[in-house]
Write a structure and sequence with these properties.
This protein is an all-alpha fold and 447 residues long. Helix content is 75%, strand content 0%.
């Protein structure tokens, strides 16, 4: 078997090639392709035959246990939005105050605000019903509105604390949180603009798919008088944002108020915040229009059927990622790149890029790269440390592909083919990464 460092990298490349070939050429379901690709990679990396699926099943269970719960709760929120007329109310209000040309910018701004405190997956499942409903109502390609939204969420995930990757990198490098937050926003705003609204129009011409009907407004139009108000509709989206942002403020400032801090921490966790939004939605949206509790529960039950495939595909992506991580590929790549004679910003970015490509996880790439780079950054200034954190964050977003759960979420939500997902989501991620590095290099000239 391929036991050397170079062999491990070859094993990973072959595993990824197997997945792509099975899906693209043999038309094998993504879940099975990910399982088989993981198996091939594990065997080539020297894992005993009887243990060849151990990492895969561990990673699948961990991913479904973490991201899966958020997807389920987010899907319930989506059903409450679409089936009660709440998304129609939001769509009507946004359309009334925006021209068709300005809609991508409006969606990007909303997603950017939400993404400050939301994990990417949470923000995506909350934005999908609004994006699809707007695209359907305006007869626009889904990509024209979807790319601005997911680009904004991706930028915040990679550059701005309190997201877990940037926060951990700040801790590893002893960077200043406030400086990193400020510089991160300076980079994130133009990066969102370029990788979102500016390229979305071009991508929409390349991939002119219509709105995914499963996540757009309900077929039966809800009478205006039976819809919840705009504020009530918007609150089901904003409530988890407010709860998690409040918790982030308490954590970042170190506030410790007896009982209050505990409650804020409890309700500010992603699972509880989304669950709170679901409960709010049942009363404020579901029971609006004369529905009974039984009818509302029936609506919530329909949320499971639409996400079963997404859950298992995302879980399988996590299983493949875990197999790659357990093989030690990230450490091998990091060791090689540290020896390169390039500026520390570029070196940090390259380390994160290669770990991202190997593991598929932006958070894993950020944390691992920060640990590798930390000894090299001991003598850097405060501003340089923050820029290294941001360079790592930029690298962690590079070219999402088949081993990234986000890749499969975007593919399934938008109803894209593999090639279409590469042309849109993967390209947007790459733009975020490259533009982010350029921003870091430019800022290094002035700070």
């Amino acid at each position: 078997m391929l036991g050397s460092s170079a062999g491990l990298i070859i094993a990973a490349l072959i595993g990824i090639a197997v997945i792509v070939c099975l899906i693209v050429f043999a038309k094998v379901h993504a879940f099975l392709a990910l399982m088989l690709g993981s198996f091939v990679m594990a065997i080539l990396a020297g894992v005993p035959l009887t243990d060849s699926f151990t990492s895969f099943t561990t990673g699948l269970g961990s991913t479904v246990g973490n991201v899966g719960v958020l997807i389920v709760l987010g899907s319930m929120i989506g059903v409450l939005l679409t089936k009660t007329g709440a998304s129609d109310q939001i769509v009507d209000t946004v359309v009334a105050h925006s021209s068709k040309k300005s809609l991508p910018w409006a969606i990007a701004a909303v997603a950017f605000i939400m993404g400050i405190s939301l994990f990417f997956e949470v923000g995506l499942v909350l934005m999908i019903p609004v994006v699809m409903s707007l695209a359907k109502r305006q007869n626009m390609p889904a990509i024209a509105l979807g790319i601005p939204a997911i680009a904004a969420l991706g930028c915040l995930h990679g550059f701005v604390p309190p997201h877990p990757g940037p926060l951990t990198a700040i801790s590893y490098l002893n960077a200043n949180l406030g400086v990193t937050l400020g510089l991160g926003l300076i980079i994130a705003i133009p990066t969102t603009i370029i990788s979102g609204p500016l390229v979305a129009k071009w991508m929409a011409r390349m991939v002119p798919v219509k709105a995914n009907e499963a996540y757009a407004s309900s077929d039966t139009s809800i009478a205006v008088e039976d819809r919840p108000s705009f504020l009530a509709s918007l609150m089901i989206v904003l409530l988890p944002v407010i709860l998690m942002l409040l918790n982030a403020v308490f954590e970042l400032t170190g506030l410790n108020i007896p009982y209050v801090t505990t409650l804020v921490s409890f309700f500010g966790s992603s699972v509880v915040a989304l669950l709170t939004a679901v409960i709010y939605g049942v009363f404020a949206l579901g029971l609006k229009g004369g529905r009974t509790f039984k009818e509302v529960n029936g609506l919530l039950g329909t949320s499971f059927t639409s996400i079963a495939g997404i859950l298992m595909i995302v879980g399988a992506g996590g299983g493949f990622k875990q197999t790659l991580v357990d093989s030690g590929i990230a450490d091998v790549l990091g060791t090689y790149l540290v020896q390169l004679a390039v500026p520390i910003f570029v070196s940090a970015w390259l380390i994160a890029v290669f770990i991202r490509l190997a593991t598929g996880s932006a958070t894993v790439a950020t944390i691992t790269a920060a640990g590798i780079v930390a000894p090299l950054a001991a003598s850097c200034s405060t501003a340089e440390l923050s820029l290294i954190v941001l360079a790592i964050g930029a690298g962690s977003m590079f070219f999402s592909h088949v081993n990234d759960g986000g890749f499969w979420m975007v593919k399934e939500y938008f109803g894209l083919s593999m090639g279409q997902t590469f042309k849109t989501w993967s390209l947007s991620c790459t733009l975020i990464s490259v533009i982010g590095l350029v921003g870091v290099c430019l800022l290094s000239l002035f700070v």
